[in-house]
Amino acid sequence: MYKAKTFSELVFQATPSDQPWQQNNISPATRTAFPVRIHKTEGTVAGATSLCQPRDQPSSQSFHTLHSPKNNSSRDTNLGSCLFTSADSLITFDFGQNICGVVTLKFGPRSSKTILGLAFSESSDFVGRNSDKSVDFKVTDGHVTVEVYPGISEYTMPVEKLRGAFRYLTVFVASKTRDCIAHVTSVSCNMTQMPSSASLNKYSGFFHSSDPLLNKIWYAGAYTIQLATISSVQGRKSDYVVKSRGWDNSGHVSQGLEVLTDGAKRDRSVWSGDRLISTSVYHCAFGGVNSAATATAIDWIFAGQQPDGRLPYACKPADLYGSDTFHLWGLLGLYELWQHSGDFQRVRELWVPFKKGVELGMSWIDSDYGLAKIVCGLDWGRSVLQGHSLSLNVLLYACLVCSVEIGNLLGEPEAQLAIWINTAESLHVRINELLWDAEKGLFKDNLSSTLYPQDGNCLVIYYGVCDSERSKTVSERLFARWNQFGPINPESNGMISTFISGIEVMAHHQAGRTLRALALIRQTWSYALSAPWSVESSLVEGFYKDGTCSYPSDKHDSSYISHSHPWSTGPTSFLSYKICGLRFTNPNHVTWTLQPTLADLDFCITGFTSAKTGYLVGGWKRDSKNLLQIAVKSTPGTIGEICVPLILGKQLKMTVDGVNVNLLNLEMDEGWAYVKGIEGGCHTVYAWYLD
Which residues form the Alpha-L-rhamnosidase six-hairpin glycosidase domain (predicted)? Predict the structure, then answer.
């Protein structure tokens, strides 16, 4: 890559593992993680720093300090030497970023019989002798007990006690006797995420731009997805909810080797509402490596379908129902999987249960208002949905539109297609007639509500239910709600939701307010990665409007908040697909487009891998104020288009692969000139903007 003399050459040579973008990749080079620093100590301890190692580096510390001379001849250069010698001895190790897995402690010859405790925390806010909560608000996770015996020994946590996500490990003396010594020579963690991956830091996609912050956020999203992709037999056991203490992560949460879950620490299971964002990000960063983790999740959702067609709120082992919106999200999850993986065979196999689920949704439409009415009102963590819910009706509209697209391919009868089309059109009209408040410039939560929700208003734009003028108005009103940390969510009592804010990012862009979309990413996700409580690596599910890592009510223990939650990763796929502008345009991934959104960046490059058609890479660079360079490399058998932006008041001159282009031969509209029919290979467009 360093041999590239031009931006085009850079694009043509780029792979996901190249520098400089690989320096933003925080996935480890090996599965063995060591603490990188000491967060705090208590009581009497000696040699704590000897147990720390630079990330992915062998230790320079040797087994020395407190050894007797006769043992020096057998020292291990990968070992340290640390003594816990008082009943109140405690060390909190900092692994430098959120990790996961099974911890191993090695003990040296100075150990006596004693008991240690191991407690885990994602955020430094909740470091202590008890782990942060991962099971339920009413369950105390507590700590893992380790019995230490005299002499050299080793302890590895049982697999069911693996910790789904943590940055901080607190090791403390739990014995009640005074004369106890724990001589620890090594602390390590075997990381268990994405078990199919032979090299955790070898992605099949990448992103790089002139903004280092956006680059960091892209990779934080990818890492969040990786942490939450777990073995299918290492999910959270829901029967632990009935216990008062402890956790068990040996639950069966899907078929197959691995599955993309809702969160690394919790809930380590498949929830039907998370797939819009997490599926797209997974395939953007990892899809060419293995797409099974998103497919097994969809299979697990549909495996839980009830006789009336209802899909789960949360899949087994949680086995929860009671959400109309998550039912519809589950249906849309199959569509998203098809779009991003090209797996139409799975769509074909699940078509009958899909239609049954759509039929259930249509049964909620009443004759009085022509809108669907909530039957089961649980949702993503917001207030319970009621009445003719805005989100419910937008999601049902989207399901119907998807049904028509799939039904056409599968040969559904014209009469059935007509029912779906007519119902979707009717919902579109009724949503705009009955739920729009012109005075507020927003859609209301239901017919009688005075709440104007963030979620429904973002979804209305995202799924194209309102026109461009209303989209712009809604964008303005949503923007007015931001504080210094991001959009305050009124339907969840003032939380800042990285899930719904991720959809808001896309909504602003679709409303033609891309600079606002980028400002939101820079504001909210920058804070999420730099706040005093942040894990500074993976992405939090949400935080309170005052910037604290807390829930709106003291009734809920804030240590339960997940700091590795895939629904928070929306900026990752948005930056690749919408800002760089490179994306496939059909589910078979045979066609693609590169449509730059220049915004306030100087350059942008991205690449990703399709399991169907291979690696696609492209990008753009402002070579000067009046010169734009666009380059793409695609595989043989694919065909694409490059969309060249037009600038008001400027005359466009263009070359494609060094050949002057007659603009009269191009299709053009108000904002773009389209270079079509680009076959597989390396291609460069230069666009000059002349006064």
Answer: 257-482
Task: Return d(Cα 449, Cα 391) in angstroms, integer.
Answer: 13
Output the CA–CA distances (angstroms, integers) from residue 590 to 59, 141, 290, 595, 613, in the order listed: 48, 49, 19, 17, 7
Non-local CB neighbours of 651 within 8 Å, separated by 6+ positions: 689, 690, 691
What are the structural domains, with CATH classification, of the chain? 7-22+581-690 (2.60.420.10), 31-190 (2.60.120.260), 206-576 (1.50.10.10)
One-letter amino acid for residue 177 of the chain: T
The per-residue pLDDT for range 535-570, each reduced to its tens digit, is 999 999 999 999 999 998 777 899 999 999 999 999
Which backbone phi and psi does 500 adopt, to 5 degrees?
Answer: -70, -35
Interacting residues of 143 by C-beta distance below 8 A, sequence separation 6+? 117, 118, 119, 129, 130, 131, 170, 172, 174
Distances (CA, A) of 170 to 127, 144, 220, 550: 7, 10, 25, 22
Which region, left, alpha or beta, applies to residue 313 given φ > 0 means left and ψ of -120 to 50 means alpha?
A: alpha
In sequence order, what DSSP letters do the residues of 212-238 get, joined into one string?
Answer: HHHHHHHHHHHHHHHHTEEETT-B--G
When pLDDT is averaged across residues 67-73 and rounded to a whole number, the result is 32
Helix axes 390-410, 351-363, angle to 10 degrees: 140
Q: Give the pLDDT score at 290.
A: 67
At 56, give phi and psi (nearest 5°): 60, 25
Choice between 133 and 60, residue whose per-residue pLDDT is larger? 133
